[in-house]
Amino acid sequence: MDVQLRVDSKGRICIPPELRKEIGDVVVLKETPEGLLLVPGKATDFVEEFRKTVGSEPPRTGKPENWPPSRMKLMWRTT
Questions:
Q1: CB atoms within 10 A of CB 27
Q2: How far apart are CA 21 and CA 33, in angstroms?
Q3: Is the distance from CB of 23 to CB of 37 less than 8 angstroms?
Q4: What is the number of alpha carbons within 13 Å of residue 30 lying toward its C-beta?
Q5: What's the whole-model pTM score?
Q6: Where are the beta strands (DSSP E) in 1-79?
Q7: Domain CATH for 6
Q8: What's the rounded Cα separation, in Å, for the pair 31 and 37?
Q9: 7, 45, 38: which is closest to 24 by C-alpha?
Q10: CA of residue 68 relative to chain centroid, distance
Q11: Domain range spanning residue 29?
């Protein structure tokens, strides 16, 4: 089934009620080689996602260096 939807002046689209029941409250807009695809998604708890992000270790890109104080002070100097 193909449904043509219009985008209003505020950039919103209105999904017909019969499709909203099928999709649910959260949707994901995916970009595919054929175009954009609207698929059902799942609700996420912002606070829980924030805690996971803040509590996780940052990805390392290499071995950390232990700079001597003289090299650290070079960063504080302004020209």
A1: 13
A2: 27
A3: no
A4: 10
A5: 0.46
A6: 27-32, 35-40
A7: 2.10.260
A8: 6
A9: 38
A10: 38
A11: 1-55
Tens digit of each residue's pLDDT (9 = 90 or more) over 21-66: 888 888 889 999 999 888 888 888 889 889 988 888 888 788 888 8
Cβ pair 36, 49 in contact under 8 A: no
- Domain count of the fold of the chain: 1
What does the alpha-carbon distance between residue 37 and residue 69 come to, in Å, rounded to a whole number? Answer: 54
What is the Cα–Cα distance from 15 to 3, expressed in whole angstroms? 9
Task: Look at residue 9 and tell me if it is in a domain.
Answer: yes
For residue 66, the one-letter residue type is N
Asked whether residue 33 is domain-assigned, the answer is yes
Do 19 and 36 touch, CB atoms closer than 8 A?
Answer: no
pLDDT band at 78 (very low <50, low <70, confident <90, very high): low
